[in-house]
Amino acid sequence: MKALEATKAVSIFQESVLDWHKKEAPHPNPYPDGTLEFTLYQKNHIDTIQWHIEDEIRRPDIALEEVVALKRKIDKLNQERTDMVERLDDFVIEMFRSVTPKPDARLNSESPAWLLDRMSILELKIFHMEEQVNRNDSSATKEHIEKCQSKLTVLLDQREDLKQCLEELFDDYAKGTKRVKVYRQMKMYNDQNLNPSLYKNQK
């Protein structure tokens, strides 16, 4: 399996964001199930759904029972997001399985999949900041537009930096100067055997 190109990952994230916003609803994954492309698209799709639920839960007029229901959706999506990141790391492990790291090979503080996670969410930030820059309603002041344009410039710069970081990390793996090592998140709050608030109330 050849290494993933950062530009390709970003384009798939962008595709997912645009697909969701066509109807502001879930969209079928256009890639074959089990492929890296499918997983990247699905990762961002989960992020996009969660982004809008996070917006909704902050409405001041929302009923308490709806807050609870949305919070549980967010917990479920967080678990799905983590599962998807770990699946992406499995692809990365396979990409570099044949590479023997050098004896002095270094570790990276985050896995490539968690870097991809940041890149996925960044595309949502860029999309929504662009929306703010392009607002033409009466409540969008000139000052607001200028502030958002300034923030958008930073986000676009960050996009290029993160793409470079991913490419450099993959290059280091390919050369054996860094070694692939993945730690699973082992989230506890959704596990009825690990969360005391769950297992203590089991009958």
Automatic annotation (TrEMBL):
Pfam (any one): DUF4254
Top-level taxon of the source organism: Bacteria
Keyword annotations of the record: Coiled coil
Any coiled-coil regions, as ranges: 67-94
InterPro entries for the chain: DUF4254
Entry keyword Coiled coil: yes
Protein name: DUF4254 domain-containing protein
